[in-house]
Specification:
By secondary structure, this protein is an alpha/beta fold. It has helices at about 10-15, 25-35, 45-50, 55-60, 105-120, 135-140, 145-170, 230-240; strands spanning about 40, 65-70, 85-90, 175, 180, 185, 200, 205, 215. A three-stranded parallel sheet has the order 1-3-2. A two-stranded antiparallel ribbon has the order 4-9. The chain has a two-stranded antiparallel sheet with strand order 5-8. α5 packs parallel to α7 and α6 (about 135-140) packs antiparallel against α7. The chain is globular. About 25% of the residues are buried.
């Protein structure tokens, strides 16, 4: 689940392998072969109006036990997917709008996704769900404080939905982190709750330390300071791999 194209860097890295992150149509081919239970994100054109071939991957996915819907025919808040099929919801033709311009699907998607995957988990083996608030990073690149703040507020509300599920379930570990910081963002002296003065040192990724928050069984393993690649090893160990 992401509020960028589903072929963009982070969501693609969980389902594709390619020589460059910009090969969106090739990445779409990898994604359709990866047998992912749930996909929610933009990038419809890379599946349905492709330049490298005349294939319609959405149509092909429907023949592979996927239900495929999009923003054209149903809003995310009205989505009620059957757990009998994999589910793919396309949220935009290319990249979704910023939250401040009307994008509103991340929170309902965060509420629907864990419940859907729990129903798909017929053998009670558990599931892994990645939700990315992609455009927080874009606000950093653009050096726009308001962009970062509005995207963070939406992400916070999405996390709330996941925590509601985890509290009720009792067996779900929730991890909240990032791959890097962008912009060298700092909240300046004099800022107040409703009036943030943000400043930047860069328009690109920085080496600032990033936080890791965890809730649920095994959360204690995520305390301390470590390389972010260690998160993967901790998750594998807790999942039993």
């Amino acid at each position: 689940v992401a509020n960028c194209s589903i072929t963009h860097a982070t969501p693609a890295s969980f389902a594709a392998h390619n020589r460059t992150r910009k090969n969106y149509e090739e990445i779409a081919l990898d994604i359709m072969e990866a047998e992912v239970d749930l996909l929610i994100g933009g990038g419809a054109k890379f599946f349905e109006r492709r330049k490298m071939d005349d294939r319609n991957l959405s149509t092909e996915l429907r023949s592979r036990n996927y239900a495929v819907e999009s923003f054209v025919n149903i809003e995310m808040k009205d989505v009620r997917p059957s757990s009998d099929k994999n589910y793919f919801y396309l949220t935009a033709d290319t990249e979704p709008l910023p939250f401040s311009q009307g994008r509103d699907y991340l929170v309902p998607a965060a509420e629907m996704a864990p419940a859907f995957l729990e129903k798909r988990d017929k053998n009670n083996k558990g599931f892994f769900l990645m939700i990315e608030a992609s455009q927080i990073d874009w606000g950093g690149h653009a050096n726009k404080s308001d962009y970062i703040i509005s995207e963070m507020i939406e992400f916070d509300n999405a996390i709330g939905k996941v925590l509601d599920f985890a509290k009720k379930d009792g067996e779900t570990l929730v991890i909240v982190t990032a791959d890097h910081e962008t912009g060298g963002y700092a909240i300046q002296y004099g800022s107040k709750m409703d009036s943030i003065d943000g400043a930047f040192t860069s328009d690109y990724h920085t080496a600032d330390l990033i936080p890791v928050f965890a809730y649920g069984p095994g959360a204690e393993h995520f305390a301390g300071i470590y390389e972010n690649t260690a998160i993967f090893d901790k998750m594998k160990e807790l999942f039993g791999f």
